[in-house]
Amino acid sequence: MRHTHMNRRDFLKCAGAVATLPLTTVELAFADADRNFTFAYISDAHIQHIQGTKFVRNWDRGLIRAVAETNLLNPRPDFVVFGGDLAQLGKKEELDHGAEMLSKLNYKMYGVLGEHDYYLDLGEYWSKLYGPHYYSWDHKGVHFITLNSILTYDKWTFERWPSAEQRMNEMAGLDNPNGSPFMVGETQRAWLKKDLAKISQDTPVVLFSHSPIQKIYKGWNFWTEDAEDVQAMLESYKDVTVVYGHVHQIQYNQIGNISFHAVMATAWPWPYPQSYAQAESHLPKLTVPMNRANPFHERDATGWQFIDVNSGRIAMHYNLSDNTNRTVKYNPDIGKPEDSFYQAASRQVAPQQHY
Ligand SMILES: [Fe+2]
Ligand SMILES: [Fe+2]
Questions:
Q1: E-only strand ranges, the chain
Q2: Is residue 19 domain-resident?
Q3: Residue 199, domain CATH
Q4: Binning pLDDT at 50, 70 and 90, where does residue 307 land?
Q5: How far is the CA of 117 from the centre of ligand 1 (A)?
Q6: Residue 43 CA, ligand 2 centroid: distance in Å
Q7: Which residue of 59, 136, 275, 324 could cross-link 145, Cys pair, CB 3.0 to 4.6 Å?
């Protein structure tokens, strides 16, 4: 498997396409071209019902625009993933309205459950629309896994709240101390173990979850309680990529052989928790220097992304509404994801210009 070198002129040519098509990709060529493919990712639409046929317009517009742009992609992605939080408060009206907008996608779509879809009826209605809460499939030599990572302790889910509505509302708050840490849970971990046993160690694995399968910041539930257990199950596989939503911001990281990439939201950006810098105990093992989008721009981190899978490692192309577009991709030379402008440039002589 060999990457053809993409020179600066080629990159500029690709970047130039951004002006006409907000969602774009840079396709890398391989010795075995049959293995190249792309898929698109849309996440965190948070469709919110007001009353009757009224919904919060901004969130609707974000999803409508993402769907329309995804349908215009060239090359066509092989499939689309919706990364969770389709609804704001898990209501049937919200899921139906969101599903109606997503049904306009001209591609097969895979769904991931978010906590906003789940905690009203424990994912029952979501399942009617999108099927099982966790599953796997193979595509062109890559093993894809979708987990429901937003479960929590049974006591919290089943015993603490007098009504399903209150349970949903408590989990919906970003920094609500009445929330409870997310987890994949024992049942799914047992399933995952069996699922992974079916593939060889050198099969590329791409795992989708809603919450990060790493511990980033517990106070805002940017957190999965059994993250280490899931990571341990993946550690013997050669190429593992985890893609997650939920955090509504650009994040990437590398833990051992696993590279992590967050996808952005179509609804709104979350700010970056101050504790990233201040509370050492809350920091994940950040092994990759990260250049984030600017959280002071209102729509920052709500742009579109396109994902390339080539040798099984993912490259994320961020087309930001109000900031410099960027690409973060796995660099086999250093064994980590890298921002192609900032990190790659900093390893060379002074960067010349922005693109
Ligand atoms: Fe969300
Ligand atoms: Fe979420």
A1: 37-42, 49-51, 54-55, 80-82, 109-111, 135-139, 142-146, 205-209, 240-244, 252-255, 258-262, 304-309, 314-319, 326-331, 336-339
A2: no
A3: 3.60.21.10
A4: confident
A5: 10
A6: 9
A7: 136
